[in-house]
Structure formats: C-alpha cells, structure tokens
Amino acid sequence: FLVERGFPGSITVKSLQSPSTKEFLKIYEFIYTLLEPAFQMPTAKVEEEIPRMLKDLG
User: Fold this and answer.
1) What is the pLDDT of residues 1-57, one digit of tens each?
2) pTM score > 0.85 for this model?
3) Where in this chain does the record put each Kinetochore protein Ndc80 CH domain (predicted)?
4) Are 34 and 11 in contact (CB under 8 A)?
5) Are 46 and 52 spatial neighbours (Cβ–Cβ below 8 Å)?
6) What's residue 39's pLDDT?
7) Range list of H helices, the chain
8) Residue 39 main-chain phi, psi, to 5 deg
9) Residues 6+ apart with CB under 8 A from 49
10) C-alpha angle with apex 39: 41 to 44, nearest 5 degrees?
11) Which of 17, 23, 52, 58 has the least CB density, counted as fewest CB within 10 Å?
12) What is the Cα–Cα distance from 15 to 26, expressed in whole angstroms?
C-alpha cells in the first residue's frame, strides 16, 4: 500500500512489524495526508494528538 501510494522512504518488513517512533510518525503522517491533504503533523504531544485524531475519524 505505502509503496503503491508513493511513500517517500524505504519500507521493510522489519520497519512495519516494529517501527521506531520516527518511522511510525512518518508512516502515520503519510497515510493521514492521503485522507487530509493539508494535514501537518503536530509538533507537541504527538502521543496525545494521534489517538484524538483517530477518534475524530470515527
């Protein structure tokens, strides 16, 4: 999915099975941008913002 949609980075099985925080945030931002093109990742308290954003999606 990520490769087909043009994810700008390398994707490995390992990085998908247990991504670092940085990898997770890059993937999350990429996917969320597909839903909301003007999206910009919040810089503060990402650990609180991501659950809120997912909840808002319904």
Assistant:
1) 999 999 998 899 998 999 999 999 999 999 999 999 998 888 888 888 899 888 988
2) no
3) 1-57
4) no
5) no
6) 87
7) 13-17, 21-35, 46-57
8) -60, 140
9) 42
10) 25
11) 58
12) 11
